[in-house]
């Protein structure tokens, strides 16, 4: 079974751009790359960068995506983006539990404070998203949350001018989710706010 939902809407250039944006700037892509960028800023050494970065990247991105893609292929949820709110229980559980293991590994391995802060920020964002999703019965855009949160974290880590480079990417991600009708404008805006305030804000406080 395919991991994507059939799309009956005509494949216009606009729709193709939205689809490519959704795939190339998906949460798992940001979560795999962001820890490496943060680890490099702290260690400036290839070995420690790979060690700490991949612990967070694998537990925060790779392991959850394996669960999500396998579930989508079995038909447990609609696609590897898990657009149906009801299907998000297992994917969220996989994300939270896997990232928690990564957090423990970092703590036991005496990882740099910034890596602990990054994991805490990611974990908190997930927890808030879970609460909103299953108590308010509202589907927050994780694409928007992760893209916006990652941008703030990189601004704190490197330089505020990173916003000039990544800001358009965040806007493009948000637009793509609405264009594909996977989210409403409100769901995307709340997702972005979640990423900025919880993800970016907590990292700024802890790092």
UniProtKB/TrEMBL annotation:
The keyword Mitochondrion does not apply. It comes from the Bacteria. The chain crosses the membrane at residues 24-43, 49-69, 89-109, 115-138, 145-166, 186-206. Keywords: Membrane, Transmembrane, Transmembrane helix. The keyword Transmembrane helix applies. This is PAP2 superfamily protein. The lineage of its organism: Bacteria, Bacillati, Actinomycetota, Actinomycetes, Pseudonocardiales.
């Amino acid at each position: 079974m395919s991991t994507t939902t059939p799309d009956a809407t005509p494949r216009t250039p606009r729709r193709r751009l939205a689809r490519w944006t959704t795939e190339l700037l998906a949460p798992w892509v940001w979560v795999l790359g962001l820890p490496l960028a943060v680890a490099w800023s702290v260690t400036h050494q290839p070995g420690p960068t790979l060690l700490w970065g991949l612990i967070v990247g694998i537990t925060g991105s790779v392991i959850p995506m394996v669960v999500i893609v396998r579930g989508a292929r079995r038909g447990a949820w609609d696609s590897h983006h898990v657009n149906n709110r009801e299907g998000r229980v297992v994917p969220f559980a996989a994300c939270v539990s896997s990232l928690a293991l990564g957090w423990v590994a970092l703590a036991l391995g005496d990882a740099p404070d910034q890596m602990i802060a990054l994991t805490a920020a990611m974990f908190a964002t997930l927890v808030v998203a879970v609460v909103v999703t299953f108590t308010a019965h509202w589907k927050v855009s994780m694409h928007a949350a992760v893209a916006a949160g990652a941008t703030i974290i990189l601004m704190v880590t490197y330089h505020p001018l990173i916003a000039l480079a990544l800001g358009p990417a965040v806007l493009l991600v948000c637009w793509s989710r609405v264009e594909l009708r996977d989210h409403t404008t409100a769901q995307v805006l709340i997702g972005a706010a979640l990423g900025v305030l919880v993800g970016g804000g907590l990292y700024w406080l802890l790092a």
